[in-house]
Amino acid sequence: QVQLVESGGGLVQAGDSLRLSCAASGRTFSSYAMGWFRQAPGKERVFVAGIGWGGDQTYVDSVRGRFTISRDNAKNTVYLQMNSLKPEDTAVYYCAAGFGSSWGPYNYWGQGTQVTVSS
Questions:
Q1: Alpha-carbon span 113 to 8, nearest angstrom
Q2: What's the order of all strands across the beta sheet hosting 77-82?
Q3: φ, ψ for residue 88, nearest 5 deg
Q4: Sign of the C-alpha dihedral, residues 84, 88, 94, 95?
Q5: Cβ(59)–Cβ(67) under 8 Å?
Q6: Around 61, how many Cα atoms within 13 Å sit in the side-chain half-sphere?
Q7: pLDDT at position 27, please?
Q8: Is the pLDDT confidence value at 113 over 90?
Q9: How confident is the model at residue 1 (pLDDT cuts 50, 70, 90)?
């Protein structure tokens, strides 16, 4: 089992950047696919980006070119660099880990970190 702790959320203005981090416990971090999801108020949780154990990356269209997912296996950490933020990016962002591909499925979840983008 793996435990995930997100950090880096906050309140920013449209056009700003944020970097989210997710620290994972356990000694097998490098074998997990890692992902980021988000849940806006009143909406379902949706996939944002994923990175496979081999480094392959997947993004949803709405963030491709603005967000970058990366991982540091030595630090058991996955990152989500978010640039050119828009008000519609406002959501709680969740880190996830799984045994599949960068698309999923994901089995373990963090508690989430709030990202608010003002216009």
A1: 7
A2: 4-7, 18-24, 77-82, 67-72
A3: -70, -5
A4: negative
A5: yes
A6: 0
A7: 74
A8: yes
A9: confident
| SS3 of residue 48 by DSSP | strand
* Cβ(74)–Cβ(3) below 8 Å: no
Would you state the structure tokens that stand for residue 117, as one six-digit string?
Answer: 């983008």
DSSP at 63: T
For residue 5, give every residue at least 6 positions away whose Cβ sits within 8 Å of its Cβ, in sequence order, or none: 22, 23, 95, 110, 111
Q: Mean pLDDT check: name the lowest of 36-40, 52-56, 61-65.
A: 52-56
pLDDT tens for each residue of 62-106: 999 999 999 999 999 999 999 999 999 999 999 999 999 999 899
| Per-residue confidence (pLDDT) for residue 26, from 0 to 100 | 78
Cβ-count burial of 21 within 10 angstroms (0-12 exposed, 13-18 middle, 19+ buried)?
middle
CB atoms within 10 A of CB 1: 7
50 in Cβ contact with 57 (< 8 Å): yes
In DSSP terms, which residues pair with 39 in a beta bridge? 92
Which two tokens mark 116? 């608010």
